[in-house]
Amino acid sequence: MNLALELNPGDMRALDYHSYFLLETGRTYEAIAEKNKVLKHDPLSVITNAELGGYFLDTRRPDEAIAQLQKTLELDPNYAAAHMRLGIAYENKKQYGQAVMEIRKAILLDRKPDRLAHLGELYARTGRRQEALEMIGELEQMSKERYGSPMLIALVYARLHLNDAAIAWLEKAKPDDNPRISEPVFDTLRSDPRFKILEARLKPEQPCPY
Length: 210
Known about the structure:
Elements: H1 2-7, H2 12-24, H3 28-41, H4 46-58, H5 62-75, H6 80-92, H7 96-109, H8 113-125, H9 129-145, H10 150-159, H11 163-170, H12 193-202
Helix pairs in contact: 2-3, 3-4, 4-5, 4-6, 5-6, 6-7, 7-8, 8-9, 8-10, 9-10, 10-11
């Protein structure tokens, strides 16, 4: 990647990949600076605009994320990923009404299980129990039509403190399902002895170093 940029500093594709590498390795200011260079090369790219909003989200800069994602939606009001990221940005600012509105727009445009689960988890955290249960119902129906991570359903049940149901869905999960069993989203279940057994089975395998 670095060699590609040395040979051709104007290679926007290599610069874009490098910005993501910088983001993942914690060099956030450099990552955003490089992403801005990519965007300057093609300012009307909806995907690049939305990804820059995602960079701001990842670096806990929700106000800048909101401004960037609103700009993205001016370019394409029907870009589901931008609505989803905008919803998360509002959620990070505890502006839950706007968060729900944007996430629902994302779901209407592109109905993905992880988006339904995120909305269900948000409902659960903000005391909207019945709506959270409705999201679970939709996820369970979707799971009958195609495989989706059982951990998504388990997550919403866990947020509702319905541990038996959460454990039942975790029992259907695979080690490579997302979210992973080791992630903080399942902290509400860790005191349950049954969770320890599932944690051992569902712990992702470490990649071989050779």
